[in-house]
Design brief:
The complex is a heterotrimer.
Chain A lengths: L3 E10 L9 E9 L3 E5 L6 H8 L7 E6 L2 E2 L6 H7 E4 L12 H11 L7 H11 L15 H13 L5 E5 L7 H16 L3 E5 L3 H5 L3 E6 L2 E6 L1 H4 L3 H6 L6 H11 L11 H13 L2
Chain B lengths: L15 H4 L2 H17 L6 H15 L3 H6 L5 H14 L5 E4 L4 E3 H27 L2 H12 L9 H31 L9 H7 L1 H24 L18 H23 L5
Antiparallel strand pairs in B: 1-2
Chain C lengths: L1 E11 L7 E12 L3 E5 L6 H8 L7 E6 L2 E2 L7 H7 E4 L12 H11 L4 H14 L4 H4 L9 H13 L5 E5 L7 H16 L3 E5 L3 H7 L2 E6 L2 E6 L1 H6 L1 H6 L6 H9 L12 H13 L6
Parallel strand pairs in C: 3-8, 3-9, 6-7, 7-8
Antiparallel strand pairs in C: 1-2, 1-4, 4-5, 9-10
Helix pairs in contact in C: 3-4, 3-6, 4-6
The chains are: A alpha/beta, B mainly alpha, C alpha/beta.
């Protein structure tokens, strides 16, 4: 098992109706067990990028290796999709069945898992996302956060190594967003490799690595501390830094001796308290 | 709030009838309908009533629920009655109304056809009331799957029905929202003549179609990402198994059909 | 202009097994020129409340009064009410339906029975007010625009009716960070130009930066109503309701461990000033 679970080498992809590449000469790697954020304005190519990873679309040039398998390789298509599960933005548009349990079973049915093995895997998946009590409910009566957790369970039941999230929290309220993000963080702690596309800088700040896409290209990669160190640069890409990072940068400009790398409220209070102790 | 609507008329309860294998239930319904149609005379309907009463009793359904299913039928029933009463013809006039003659045959026909219709609907309602739409779809798919040899798309049909069932509430909710959004811009969906009203629907229907297509695209993508590739090599969560209760139901129904066929032989009068 | 809720209750599908009371005994008044934020969880009744403001829903109990007149009374034109009080739904771009942007924005003015010339003036004005160029965009299909542009066109469709009050349900939902800031700036612009604004939002940071009044809904009831300073001063209560507070407020609460008298900072500029005072012992020149 290689440490680099996702490898993109100089990948290009163009939609038929478009005049320019949606993904333009992108090379990147994701390590096994890592939680990686991908940021970028609407239309920057983030979604296209993750769809390349599980072979929903195939690169025009370059190669995509997912868990060591080339997505161009016909015989691996279903293997790759089973190992790299994907959760989409709109919670309503990815649940297929009219009962939660049966929706979670959908992927298992597709991959030919024996009927006798299904209940156990479904129960475990629903438990992992804390939705056991909703197993017999109709999806359209659930909240957005609950629907997304059902979608996650549907993927989990297939026992993937990688989970790809295409703005899975964009349409949720803060409570739902927290539910889903915490669920995913927990899965990551238990070893799941996660690629997390988001518009919420606070979420990206809690990932290990952050990639920034702009006009189809990968323009910046690094730790959150590195990526969020320069607000102006991010604003050029129509992004921003988390509020506390902005505040810290502002204070530094006024001559306050706060260090670089403040992203969260915890960082901020810790550093302010340290400074105050020396006053 | 349209998200509370129930689809079909499934009435969830724990009963022997609810628990029957959906395939068996569908086949039993077909047998029952055949029974209703071959009932040779009015006396035979006693058997139908008994059979249906037994099924209803075992299903624990409130009787009024079954009756409610007849409501939309009332005009057709009246129509059938009138048609048969006056246009059957026959040799035994009972009443002369000038423009038409009421005959004994007409009366019997009116009652017979009305009863057939009523029992047809009652039986079908019993199936839909006791079987979740998904289970029904499942049963249909498996009943029809032998036809795959003839390239009949049993799986695709069932999948389409499931998706329709899943998305109807979502789209209804969406329609409600779009209608309100257009009303907020001064649209009027309620007054005007038929043509104007039809025209007023455009601002509702266009966004609804756009949204439905977008959803369909999203869903197709999500299904593919979850390894969906048609019915081939697919396993199912629910294993349908014909159990003892199913055999008993089949036996009862067989007896019912036999009695219906034999009825003229042991009942001395004929109506 | 004054909009008053007088003990308003709304029950969906009363008498059916699905009966559900969405808002309960709401009384409040919104005056001219206010910027009010409506916050609360999904299902707390915010949207139901908003839909009562322009008579899309009518109360099952109580009354909604516009300048003292019951808007659901017979003889009150709903169209007039909806012209005066514009409602922008969440993900408003889903309401677009015309072949061109100009035609779509004209839908509202045309329903009001305005002349073609007046309608055209309104369309130009509305597109400009949402920051789109009429020349560039008027003849394009709304369906080929970017998500952010579609959202603006949809808002223009309501603005074109020249409402006195604008009710917006999560106007920035789903946009990228700068798109979000741009929409918030637009809404603030409408307010500065004299439009009364009611905004439903989940983003406490947005609310803190823009609103002058906050109404908190919980389980169909109006639980808090006051200035941002007053509402967020009681940050513990919001946390109790499992609602967010602006990051600067949470920071203020944390910093009170070090400085018990640290002020409750609602906006980023306040936090900046407060920290600067504490850490440098003086104000920076603006």
């Amino acid at each position: 098992m290689s440490d680099e679970i996702i490898v993109l080498k100089d990948v290009c992809y163009k939609y038929e109706e478009s005049s320019h590449n949606a993904v333009d000469h992108v090379s990147m790697t994701v390590r096994r067990g890592e939680m990686t954020a991908v940021l970028g304005r609407n239309g920057s190519g983030k979604s296209t990028l993750v769809k390349l990873i599980n072979g929903l679309i195939l690169p025009d040039s370059g190669t995509v290796l997912t868990d060591g398998m080339d997505t161009q390789d016909d015989e691996h298509v279903w293997d790759i999709r089973q190992r790299a599960g994907m959760v989409f933005q709109n919670p309503d548009n990815q649940l297929v069945a009219t009962v939660v349990r049966e929706d979670v079973a959908f992927g298992l049915e597709n991959t030919g898992v024996p009927s006798t093995d299904m209940p156990e895997r479904i129960d475990a998946a629903l438990k992992a996302v804390n939705m056991t009590d909703f197993a017999e409910r109709a999806p359209h009566l659930l909240s957005g956060g609950q629907k997304q957790r059902v979608a996650i369970a549907g993927i989990l039941a297939m026992r993937p190594d990688i989970m790809l999230f295409d703005e899975a929290t964009a349409m949720l309220d803060p409570r739902g967003r927290k539910e889903v993000f915490e669920t995913v963080r927990q899965l990551n702690r238990e070893g799941m490799t996660v690629v997390w596309i988001t518009h919420f800088m606070e979420e990206a700040a809690q990932c290990e690595t952050v990639h920034i896409m702009h006009d189809g290209g990968l323009v910046l990669s690094g730790t959150p501390q590195e990526v969020f160190s320069d607000r102006e640069r991010l604003q050029n890409w129509r992004l921003d830094v988390p509020p506390m990072a902005a505040l810290a940068q502002h204070l530094r400009a006024a001559g306050v001796g706060l260090p670089e790398g403040i992203l969260s409220i915890d960082d901020m209070t810790r550093e302010v308290e340290a400074l105050a102790a020396h006053l | 709030m349209l998200n509370n609507i129930t689809l079909g008329q499934y009435y969830p309860l724990k009963s022997v009838v609810h628990a029957l294998d959906p395939r068996v239930k569908i086949l039993l319904l077909i047998a029952y309908i055949a029974g209703v149609f071959i009932v040779p005379d009015l006396t035979g309907f006693v058997l139908v009533v008994l059979y249906l009463a037994l099924a209803c009793k075992l299903s624990k359904l409130p009787f009024r629920l079954l009756i409610k299913g007849l409501k939309p039928l009332r005009f057709i029933l009246i129509f059938t009655c009138i048609l048969n009463l006056f246009f059957t013809g026959g040799e035994t006039p009972l009443l002369n109304l000038g423009f038409a003659t009421l005959t004994r045959e007409g009366l019997i026909n009116a009652v017979r056809y009305s009863l057939r219709l009523i029992f047809l609907v009652l039986g079908s309602s019993l199936l839909t009331l006791t079987t979740a739409p998904v289970t029904l779809t499942d049963g249909l798919e498996r009943l029809l799957s032998p036809l795959k040899v003839l390239h009949f798309p049993a799986h695709e049909m069932a999948m389409m029905m499931t998706i329709a069932l899943r998305f109807i509430p979502t789209l209804l909710e969406e329609a409600d929202k779009i209608m309100k959004a257009q009303s907020a811009r001064g649209a009027d969906f309620e007054s005007g003549r038929l043509f104007e009203r039809a025209k007023a629907m455009v601002p509702l229907l266009v966004p609804l179609f756009v949204s439905a297509f977008r959803r369909a695209g999203d869903l197709a993508m999500a299904m593919e990402a979850r390894c969906y590739h048609g019915g081939e090599g697919r396993t199912r969560l629910h294993i349908l198994k014909v159990e003892k209760r199913d055999w008993i139901a089949i036996l009862i129904t067989a007896v019912f059909i036999a009695l219906v066929i034999l009825e003229p032989h042991f009942v001395p009068w004929h109506l | 202009m004054q909009l008053t809720f007088d003990h308003v209750t709304h029950t969906y599908q009363p008498g059916s097994p699905f009966q559900a009371t969405a808002i309960r005994d709401i009384s409040l008044t919104i005056g001219s020129g206010e910027f009010t934020a409506l916050i609360g969880h999904t299902g707390s009744g915010k949207s139901t409340l908003a839909q009562h403001m322009n008579a899309l829903l009518s109360p099952t109990e109580g009354r909604v009064l516009l300048d003292g007149r019951d808007i659901n009374e017979k003889g009150v034109s709903k169209r007039d009410v909806r012209q005066r009080i514009g409602l922008v739904f969440q993900y408003a771009e889903t309401q677009l339906f015309e072949e061109t942007v100009a035609k779509d924005v004209a839908f509202g003015p045309k329903n009001l029975g305005l002349s073609p010339e007046e309608t055209d003036t309104r369309v130009r004005e509305a597109l400009e007010r949402v920051g789109l160029s009429y020349a560039d965009i008027a003849e394009r299909s709304p369906f080929e625009l970017s998500g952010g542009q579609m959202r603006r066109v949809a808002i223009a469709g309501v603005i074109a009716m020249r409402p006195e009050m604008l009710v917006l349900d999560e106007p920035a939902a789903g946009l990228d960070p700068l798109g979000r800031q741009e929409i918030m700036a637009l809404v603030q612009g409408f307010h500065r130009a004299g439009t009364t604004v009611v905004m439903i939002s989940h983003s406490m940071d947005d609310v803190a930066e823009t609103a002058r009044r906050i109404i908190v809904m919980d389980q169909g009831k109006l639980t808090m109503d006051g200035t941002p300073e007053a509402i967020f001063a009681d940050a513990e209560r919001l946390v109790e309701l499992d609602l967010d507070v602006p990051q600067t407020c949470r920071m203020s609460l944390e910093l009170r461990r070090t400085w018990p008298d640290f002020p409750m900072c609602v906006r980023a500029d306040e936090a900046y000033e407060a920290l600067l005072t504490r850490l440098k012992g003086g104000k920076a020149h603006a």
